[in-house]
Amino acid sequence: MKYLAAVAGVALLSACSPQQETHTETAVDAKISYPMTVRGNVTDEYFGTVVADPYRWLEDDRSAETEAWVTAQNAVTFEYLEQIPYRDKIKDRLAELWNYEKVGAPFKEGKYTYFYKNDGLQNQYVVYRTDEEGNTEVFLDPNTFSEDGTTSLATLSFSKDGSLAAYAISEGGSDWRKIIVIDVETKEQLEPTLVDVKFSGISWFGNEGFYYSSYDKPEGSELSAKTDQHKLYYHQLGTDQADDRVVFGGTDAEKHRYVGGQVTEDDRYLIISAAVSTSGNKLFIKDLTNPESELVTVLDHTDSDTYVLDNVGTKLYLVTDLNAPNKRVVTVDAANPQPENWEDFIAETQHVLNPSTGAGYIFAEYMVDAIAKVEQYNYDGERVREIELPGVGSVGGFSAKHEADVVYYTFTNYNTPGTIYAYEPDAGESTVYAESKAQFDSTAYESKQVFYTSKDGTKVPMIITYKKGMELDGTNPTILYGYGGFNISLTPSFSMTNAMWLELGGVYAVANLRGGGEYGKDWHNAGTQMQKQNVFDDFIAAAEYLIAENYTSSGKLAVRGGSNGGLLVGAVMTQRPDLMQVALPAVGVLDMLRYHTFTAGAGWAYDYGTAEDSKEMFEYLYGYSPVHNVESGVHYPATLITTGDHDDRVVPAHSFKFAAELQAKDAGANPQLIRIETNAGHGAGTPVSKTIEQYADIYGFTLWNMGIKELK
């Protein structure tokens, strides 16, 4: 039986290998007739420079004109995609690969052990629980929240004794949430739903109530109007939301764009973080054992990213990059928590630190060239051991409550599906808790880390994954992925969509660009504001490396990125349209002169700067803003822009304008299309069915425009 299964697997693998051949023109190759996009006469003036914004009207996501434009664009795009002969084959195979049971690590709350599980193709993960007798049942099934699976479970938080739970739902992918409070025994809702919650956790204080954050509902469209003053609220159970107390952020002096509150595990302190941008925060602490206690300032500036990792009594353990770009852990007494009183607990090293806690230990995870290394410490600051990991890759987890006996972690890399391990910290032993059931033969593929040289001489790491034995003859379909921003690190991780690309015979390369966090704050800052071009140069150099080393050629190269990575793709394809055959910007920040006027976009100014900051900053942004750098007469790569009509993080107007510019000005024969997912947002909570359809379209579009006309 095993032999038959192996043979079947080989047959399926070979069934989706690309084959290039000469062909006669088909309907899908015919010249596309794009919908007409009306050009308006709106202009803005920046420091004496007048900038036209002819598609400003597409920013109105509630207008009938924009709705009609979206419908017309989707009609053209899907007509094109539907004619790709192997699109359905890719979709069916991806669904087949995706259809296996996926289980998350267990966690204890009260007398139950909870875990997330997906049977295979369920649109959303289901929350199960097991009682002390070993009986397992469904606790929450988000697949029942809406008929089409587009309402997702965003947050789940339990009260101190585990008898109550509050969970947040997202509808249609929006960042606006609703919070529902239930009794865990009966699963019955206990009070009216809290509404209009955004960018928030749910942090319980005992069983009495919880802290959450939100903005006042904006005037105009809730999907695009600017949200600027975040507030921390306390909700007392049994009271109306209208009576919820503003804990922080309600005054002009406390006005910040992002405010969050977290209660320590022992219910002793409320920790408040306040920030005006996505980097840097102020920090405050309140003693919850004394209702009359004042809010104590830990940090009164935003020159660092600092948070409380844990506390033991009045002793605080803080993680900070203040005077430590790669981060360190410090301790301080809560009575005098200012920086002058900090003492190093885990000193800064040459590698970036991301610590976690559980079972009475601190786990110091380091990134060594984007690869994980974990060391275990006790609360006296003594290094216990380096934890032996299953291989070279990424880990997630190493987090549990103080009283836990075991902590769980997940290990993965680009060609290894995630496996959950149970780690006993006293013995220092790891055992497999849940092995991945993915039908993917990791041994058939390999990942290789290389270091290439960027334009200014900087060495940049990149991991390239492909089928073993692949010939480096410059003909391999390749996707180069990047992000390069917001201190976010791209560490090796497995995804079934990437596995599908590998099975198709593709190369998948991920470059760790400046702007990310792989080498700490200095690496991040090297890709921000007036140094943002470094990020684009790093990505261009990665593409040139792949071509020079014969992994691929310009005619077989696609570039892909989402959100800030969508900006990356937009900037690189307008600067070097000759470099790639296909461009795949997803939910991208593409209008760099106006990004900060939508929703919480002004919070990205640390990375980007804004067009109002100075003449120099305006000219810099104007010089690379993708929407403003599409030129007439240029042959652009085949482009499939993807976005969601409910994206209130990076509003779809960015993508709408970019598509309109490309369609109006491109001089070549390559398609310039936009795929607009309806009832979907920035990505989180997207139903599995929609994800499978989207990637079938992306891969079909990519391979077709690389000249691959049928799959073996």
Automatic annotation (TrEMBL):
The keyword DNA-binding does not apply. Residues 39-435 form the Peptidase S9A N-terminal domain. GO terms for biological process: proteolysis. It comes from the Bacteria. InterPro entries: AB_hydrolase_fold, Pept_S9_AS, Pept_S9A_N, Peptidase_S9_cat, Peptidase_S9A, Prolyl_oligopep/macrocyclase. Its EC number is 3.4.21.26. GO terms for molecular function: oligopeptidase activity; serine-type endopeptidase activity. This is prolyl oligopeptidase.
